[in-house]
Amino acid sequence: MQSDQQFGEYRGIKFEHEYNGGADSRSGVIQFPDDPYRHVVAGGGAAHWEEEAKRLIDRYFREIDVEPDDDSEA
After folding, report:
1. Which of 29, 59, 65, 69 has its CA 20 to 30 A from that of 11?
2. What is this structure's pTM?
């Protein structure tokens, strides 16, 4: 059986994913610095999984950009 495992990186965050034919889905892990995240997408193929992963990575960076600094005067 041939492996369909693929690797990539976006904005410095690495990810890997592979196809699960029995469930017709693609699952993988996004290696966030704080906590790796398992992400599953039904159908759509590798490009669709990577698009979803990039959206999650962009959201991660937006969230850390809006957190107050430790030395803020809140």
Report:
1. 69
2. 0.77
